[in-house]
Structures are given as structure tokens and as C-alpha cells.
Amino acid sequence: MTDAVMPRATYRLQFHAGFRFADAARLAPYLARLGISHVYASPWLKARPGSTHGYDIVDHTALNPELGTEADFRDMAAAFKANGLGQILDFVPNHMGVGGADNPWWLDVLEWGEASDFAGWLDIDWQRGRLLVPFLGDQYGAVLEAGQLELRFDAEAGRFAIWAYDTHKLPICPLHYGRVLGEADTALERLGDAFAGLPDWRPRVVARARDLQADLAALVARDAALRAAVDRAVAALNADKVALDALIRDQHWRAAHFRVAADDINYRRFFNINELAGLRMELPELFDHAHSLVFALLADGTLDGLRIDHVDGLLDPKGYLVKLREAAPRPFYLVVEKILARHEPLRGDWPVQGTTGYEFANLVMGLLVDPEGEAALTRLCADFTDAEQDFDAIVLDCKLRIMRNEMAGELAMLAREAAGIAQQTPRTADFTRNILSRGLCAIVAGFAVYRTYVDAAARPTDADRREIDAAIAAARRQEPDLDPSVFDFLHGLLTTDLVARPRSGFARHTVQRVAMKVQQYSGPIMAKGLEDTAFYRYNRLVALNEVGGHPDHFGVTLAEFHAANAERAAHWPQAMLSTSTHDTKRGEDTRARLVALAGMPGEWATRVQEWSRILRSAHGMGAPDHNDEYLFYQLLLGAWPAGGGTEAMAERLEGAMVKSMREAKRHSNWASPDAVYEQAMLDFVRHALGSEHFLAAFLPFQERVARLGLRGSLVQTALKLTLPGVPDIYQGAEMWDLSLVDPDNRRPVDYAVREAALAEVEAALRQDRSAAIQAMAANWRDGRLKLALTATLLAHRAAQPALFASGTYQGLEANGPAGPRICGFARRYGDAELRVVAARFAGDQAWEGTMLDWPGPVTDWQDLLTGQVVQPSGALDIAQALRDLPVAVFIRRH
Predict the structure, then answer these.
(1) Average model confidence (pLDDT) for the chain?
(2) Are 199 and 139 within 8 A, CB to CB?
(3) Is the bond leading into 624 cis (omega within 30 degrees of zero)?
(4) Where are the beta strands (DSSP E) in 14-123?
């Protein structure tokens, strides 16, 4: 890895039909001037048409045509290189987009079932019968009777397929073409007989079928009468629902209502998304095929690195990453999307530079949370919402709900496989599927981490064993009615201790594979139960409800903060540092505003009660409930105003509230939305934004919170750009990012405004840095202050790359009345040194008498941000250092 090109700073771009290769190419000069070294691209491989994110890939070996041509792509890469920019790709090895008519692998599997060349590449459990296709909006029979399942003939290809809603293509197996062609015409009858005789052509059944399909296409192309006969046969079948149903029932697929997936799913999905099917990337042939294009782009220098999406979804993450390193044509930068528990380190034996930085975003946010506000905010949330406040209990309930509903089918598959193992010896033969399902459910619910990493090559690590032991202990408490021997068996299964001894009676390969499949299941359960459900129920301070976050832990201590950074400097110095991503629940500056509430809990409580009285007096005391109301006030505080006027604000808030209600699954959900409750919430939003009385009470407080949030935003930005690691800037977040949950955080970015602002900032800073910063601070709403800070620190990273890539990290201690409210640290590499001092909390800024330890000889130090020069003698006067901004970044003045 020593020869890999390491990024200095990355900039995330979201590609879609509205932002194409040519658009990214035009940005190259701006990004280079900003100080970026690498574009960090969202997936641009071929995805389903209309994809807004690119994670529903249908072909790993092709570019997405909606983003431009191959020439456009090459022009973009050339523009990046011409401006000194490298590129890192967000790569998706875990799953593909299915459904529709766009994925040739999926269509081939639907057509041929287990006989398809791709049947083993998609993670399908064929023992459960036909491949479930859960894309219908109503019960199968109702859709059939309504004529929304229709047989169609593709004359150019000579193929038949059932189409659902004109969007989902379900191929008919060629063995059944004779049932369509019938006996009305001699030529068609002969061809039908040939299709029926396909089994005689083993092992060339598929090849022979393709020949016959080509013959059928040629036949109807030459003879209009034959084409008309085929059309009549198709129409006759569509008119005869009994015959059409019989044809459908004989296919390798089973069309069903989307809710059926919860119970009967027989392919691994990305979480519970039916349209994303899991891949068996552990298979060598699939690995080679899926990585052929990105390896070629690594080889020719188009790519310098990869970000691996959802690494925990893979059967063997470590094995995949090792194979990736070994098979790649050259060393490259590699980070993984991995969510870590508070006590969980990134695996030291993974050959990566680090994670994508979720834990960093929460570390910095935790530093800014004033712990003195915890008790008051907890009381306020409990009193106002009357909602459950035991976060652990909420998470447990949500995880169990996911396993009993949306992802019950996957649990049933695991229980069946575990029961099959139990049947292998008399000692465990009485463990039924139901008993093992209950046990597995309780164990998965009890995990404190997303997953463990037992693999086929090694025994569990001590860390894995501790996590499994703890989950088993929690499960025993949750299911006291199960015989203890059930958990003994499941413990042996998950640790693979069942096959640790010779002649155990259990098949080693089966035990190892089931243990690994349980690990693949536990990650999605944690994600769906914690991030996508519990985070929308527990609203004490939603700034902490972030991906990779722990909202029950009210901030971090200085000691924890320094320890985490020292650890990163020592072991993961090139890990990515993120504060906003395409997945974050709130934009980084939205969160910074909300964190300010921890420093003013009493006033916040007063305002919430006042606003509720104003709005409820006119709106009524019914829906929405107070928990959703409490969330609404926080979102409104964080996102107001973000341009576009009240109507645009209302639309953004409505979208965020609908998603929040459905994710919480208390009054509504995605499968069965409660239109009445949701409308009541939306009416409440509209009523609030249209109430002069409410806005008169709301806006002065919002203005104060926004000013306090400004301080946190600047500190957060400065820390990201100076701490050990590679800072990533999410698209547009070099200026204010007041986004709500996606898709709000993927709104178009006005780069013309940013390019013009950067030119103005550069000119102003060159003329008089101190005056420019003061002017920008006075007009902070336009975002130029954050842009100036970002550009200044990125420029210093470019001037001193070794300092940031390899520099040491040392925490500095502050003393005096406000000592606990100050964070200071030093970075050093050779003669280059940088020292940072920052205000932790957004409240009182009385720094008199507070000093920061400042080791070393007396000399001049200059703040990169304001130009201020200080000369500390053993200690830095905080009042002087932070007289203009809540953060200062000092370098020795030469």
C-alpha cells in the first residue's frame, strides 16, 4: 500500500440524470481551487433507469448511460487530471438492482431458474421453491383479474414474458412456449413442439432455446399472418385468466404482493428492500466479473481508490478485502462503509485505510454537546412527549419488530438451516424450527454490534466471542421459557464450537456457513432497528440521532476525544473524516444548531411549551402526537431558512416528517401508511408556517439558535480539516448545509454561487485577512465565512501534506474557569507544527482567566484564519486567541 496515491482531501459528488459526467468535469477547476485532491464519486456504474443514487447497479462492467457516454466519462477523467484531481469511486459489491426489465442476470434467473448461469451468483435459497417476485401492489389474484398481469410477445427477440404494470418484466421459460403458440398454425405448432423438446438438448438447453427464439423472431418478421396468429394466441391467453394463471404458476418465479416478502422471501436483500438483491461476491467467477471494469480504471490511473459500500453485508468482509488487495492491478486507497459500536474498534487485520467516517462525525458532534444540559433535556422530552425514554428498551423493541415483520422471512430461512444442523445428531434432534427461530431472534436482538466476523478460515477472535457471549446472555434473559440447551446449541453454532472437536457429528461446512449467514442477517437488523426506527422514536436531541451515533450517550469527554484522535493518528491516519454524507439524517450545520439546545435547556423548554400552546389552541389537541410535534420543532429550528421561501420550506419539512413518521412505525409506516394521521401532521406543519402568532414567537429564538450554531459549525469544520485523517466535504457543504434527511440532502447544489463566492473570498483574504473575516462574520448567513475557513485550511493541507498525513497528535490541557469548555491539540511532523484551540460549547464565551498549555520556546504564532499573531509563554490566553472566532489554528510565524 506504500505506493498508493493517498488523498489529501476529498469532495463527494452525487451523480444522477440531473448531474452528469459533463457537469462534474466543469467543476474540476473550482474543486482544485478549493483545495481538493480527489473527487469522491457516488456509484456511476450502470444502474436502473431513473436511479437517483446509483446503488441499484444492474451491470458492474458498464457505465451508467444516464450520466453520459464513455467519451463524456473520459473527458471528465481528463478534466480531473488536468486540474490535479484524482478520483475515488463508491463501489457496491453486496447487491444489485432487480425488478423492472433492466438487469440481465435477474431476467435470466427468472427465465431459467436454477438452470440459469447466474442462479448461483444471486444469493437465492432455491430450497424454498420458486423465486419470489414481491413487486405487486395488491394481492396476486386481484392484480391478475384486473388485467395488470399481461402476457406479451417481443417479436424482435422471439420471446414471451408476463408484464406487471408495464414496468416489471417476468420472462416465460421457453419450455412453455408451446402452450402459447398452440395448434392454430402448422409452422407455429412445429416450433412449439421444438420448445417443448428442449430438455432433450441437455447440456445445451439454453443455447438451443436461444436458437429457437431467433427462429421464431425471423418467422414472424417474414410472415405477417404468422405474427397475427401469435398475437391472437397471446390475446386468448390474456382473456382466459385460468389458463394465464396456470402458465404463471409453472414458471420459475412467483409474483406476489410486496408484503409477502416479509414472510416468504427466498433471496437475500439489501436490508428489507425488495428491489435490491444480494450477491454472492465470495464466488471467484463473480468477483472477477464484477471488478473487471474498476480494476481496469485503477490500472490506467483513472481511479486512485475505492470506497466499499455496506461491507458488513458481505459473507466474509475480511476475505473480500484481502482478495481485493491481491487482485487489484496496483496499490490503491481503500476505505469501508462500516458502522462501529462505541466500544468497537475497526478490525486491525483488515487491509484498509479506515472507515468512511461515521464515527468521526459523531465524535466531533459529541465534543460540542454541553453535558450539563442532559438532565433537563431528558425531563423535557419525557414530560412533553410522554414517550418511552429508555433508549435500550426502544432499540430492543424495534429490532424485534423488524424480525417479526419486515425481515421475518430471512429469520425463517436461518431457523430452517439451523434446524437442519440440529437434526444431524441425536443430542439436538428435538430442536424445532420454531424454538430455534425464537432463540435466534433473541440473540440477534441482543447484539451490541452490527455483526461478528467468524469466517470459514479461522476460529472466532476474542472480540467476536465476547460479543456472541453477551448476546447469548441477553437472549437467555429475554427468553427464559426456552430450555437452556437451545442457547447452548446456538452458541456452539455461532462460534462454530460445534465442530471444534473431531467426530462431533456436525458437518463443518454447513455449521460455518450458517454461522456466517447469521452474521449477514444481524447487521441489517441493527441498521433497520436502530438507525431506521429507534432514531425516529427517541427525539431527546436529534442532533445525536445520526448514522453511527449513540443518542443515549450525551456527548463525549475531552479525554475520549483525544484518545480517539490519537488512536486514529497511530493506526488509521488516512481514514476518511466525514461530517455530512448522502446518508446522514441531518446536515452538518443543521446538527450544529440543534446541539446548541444542550446549553440552553430551560429556555428551550419554555419555547416548546409556548409554541405548542399557540399552535394547539387553533389546530386542536389531536394528531399529531407530542413526540412528532417535538421532532418538528427541532427540524424547523435546524433548517430555517434555507432559501426558496415558506412554500419550499413547507415542502421540505413535509417530506422529512412523512419519512420520520413512517420510519418510526408508530402511527404510520411504509407498507400501510396512515393517510389520516399523516395528513394531520402535514396540516400542523402548514398551520405553523402560516401562523403569524407562532412565527412571531419562533423567529427570535431561531435567530439566536442559528447564531450559536454558527460557532459549532465553524469548530466542526476546522476540526475535520486539521485532525488526523482525510477530510471529506459533502457536495455543497463548503457553505452552509442545512439539510434534512434524504432525499432533502441530495437537492441540487448551486455551484455558480460557490464559484463566485470562492473568488470573492480569495480576493478579500489577500487584501486584508482580518478585515475580511470580520466582514464575513458580520454577514455570516451567506456562507462565505465557512467557505473561507475551508479554503484556508485546505490550502495549508496542500502546503504541508506530510504534517496532515503523518503528523503526531497531542492533546493540550486548558486550565481556569472555562477550562472544560476548551479543546486544544497539536499536530507535528519534523519542523512543521500546527496547534488548534476551539470552544466546545455554544453558550457563554467568557474566557477571562482561562489558559491553554503551550509547550516549547517563546515565539510568534499566527492564526491561519484571522491572521492574528500571539506570543504565548508557556500558556495561551484563550480570551485573546478566540476574540474573533470560536476556533483558531496557529502555525509558527517565520
Answers:
(1) 96
(2) no
(3) yes
(4) 38-41, 45-47, 57-63, 86-91, 95-97
C-alpha grid cell, residue 35: 483545495
User: What confidence score (pLDDT) does residue 302 get?
Assistant: 98
- What pLDDT, in 10s, does the model give residues 455-466? 988 789 999 999
* CB-neighbour burial class of residue 234 (10 A; exposed 0-12, middle 13-18, buried 19+): middle
Q: What is the per-residue pLDDT for 2?
A: 53
Q: What is the pLDDT of residues 516-544, one digit of tens each?
A: 999 999 999 999 999 999 999 999 999 99
Q: Outline where DSSP puts E strands in 547-686.
A: 576-577
Nearest alpha-carbon partner for 528 in 312, 802, 825, 745: 312
Name residues whose C-beta falls within 8 Å of residue 532's C-beta, 6 or more positions apart in sequence.
Answer: 271, 663
Residues ≥6 apart with Cβ < 8 Å to 458:
none
For the chain, give the percent of residues with pLDDT over 90: 94
Residue 12: pLDDT over 70: yes
Beta bridge partners of 838: 823, 887
Measured CA to CA, the distance from residue 192 to residue 233 in angstroms comes to 12
DSSP 425: S
Counting Cα atoms < 13 Å in the Cβ hemisphere of 219 gives: 23
The full length of the chain comes to 894
Asked whether 825 and 565 are in contact (CB, 8 A), the reply is yes
Cα separations in angstroms, 298 against 2, 32, 394: 16, 21, 45
The β-bridge partners of 833 are 828
In whole angstroms, what is the distance from residue 654 CA to residue 628 CA?
12
Q: Distance (Å, rounded) from C-alpha 392 to C-alpha 341?
A: 14
CA distance 223 to 527: 57
Q: Residues 562, 427: contact at Cβ < 8 Å? A: no
Read off the pLDDT of residues 863-888 as tens digits, 9 standing for 90 and up: 999 999 999 999 999 999 999 999 99
Q: Fill in the DSSP letter of residue 199.
A: G
